TrEMBL record:
InterPro entries: EF-hand-dom_pair, EF_Hand_1_Ca_BS, EF_hand_dom, Recoverin. This is EF-hand calcium-binding domain-containing protein 1 isoform X3. GO terms for molecular function: calcium ion binding. The keyword Calcium applies. Keywords: Calcium, Metal-binding, Repeat. The keyword Repeat applies. It comes from the Eukaryota. CDD domains: EFh. Residues 67-102, 103-138, 148-183 form the EF-hand domain. Pfam families: EF-hand_5 (PF13202), EF-hand_7 (PF13499).
């Protein structure tokens, strides 16, 4: 059983507060307490203290309504900076800084990292296909749903591939997001309060051969913060 003594909690809060740009000391203490609560759900044996992949994915699903397995795995990898298979308390705080309160530049870098599935510095046509496939619902009369996804990939590249090399570099992605902020989550919801991809390209046109899945269950970061950062006088 993982527990944090008051002394250890204060020490962790003090050390983490110095590096945090977006949370105050009280908020960091609340997030550290939540971290230790989530450790109770960690089932994998490990040599160091951290939230494992399954517990982290469960947190994303139950707290923010995320359902895409591929995206949740990539969010986990974005938090797990040292790639040791767990999210330690420092990674937890720094990751949530961007996830909940990051500015546009920080969120752009984070989302690109999530969408760059193989970590080669580009979002390829194949990666777009796999991510968008999870965002399309097959229509009853549709014989080949993959054709609709390929059409959507073509639309995406036409809109975002500024150097016309058939893939998205970070520069392509960043420029596109600066021009249209809704493109930040073009390949699936990886932040709280995700927007519908259907509206990103042309809200007046029907997306070819498919309908975007509505992620209406995605929870607002404000709801999460209201629950976690309760005023101590209200407790």
């Amino acid at each position: 059983m993982y527990t944090a003594t008051r002394k250890r909690l204060q020490k962790l809060t003090d050390s983490t507060s110095k590096a945090s740009k977006h949370f105050n000391r009280y908020e960091i203490e609340c997030l550290i307490k939540l971290f230790y609560t989530l450790l109770e759900e960690t089932t994998e044996k490990q040599s160091s203290i951290g939230i494992d992949r399954n517990a982290f994915r469960n947190f994303l699903h139950t707290t923010f309504g995320m359902t895409d397995d591929m995206i949740m795995d990539r969010v986990f990898r974005a938090f797990d900076k040292d790639n040791d298979g767990i999210v330690n308390v420092t990674e937890w705080i720094s990751g949530l800084c961007i996830f909940l309160r990051g500015n546009l530049e920080e969120r752009t870098k984070y989302c690109f990292e999530v969408y760059d599935l193989n970590g080669d510095g580009f979002i390829s046509r194949e990666e777009m296909f796999h991510m968008l496939k999870n965002s399309l619902l097959k229509q009853p009369s549709e014989e080949d749903p993959d054709e609709g996804i390929k059409d959507l990939v073509d639309i995406t590249l036409k809109k975002m591939d500024h150097d016309h090399d058939g893939k998205l570099s970070f520069a392509d992605y960043e420029t596109s997001v600066q021009e249209e902020a809704l493109l930040l989550e073009a390949f699936g919801p990886c932040l709280p309060d995700a927007k519908l991809l259907k509206k990103l390209f042309n809200p007046k046109k029907k997306v070819p051969k498919g309908t975007m899945r509505h992620h209406s269950g995605t929870r607002s970061h404000l709801e999460f913060e209201a629950q976690v950062f309760k005023d101590p006088h209200d407790l």
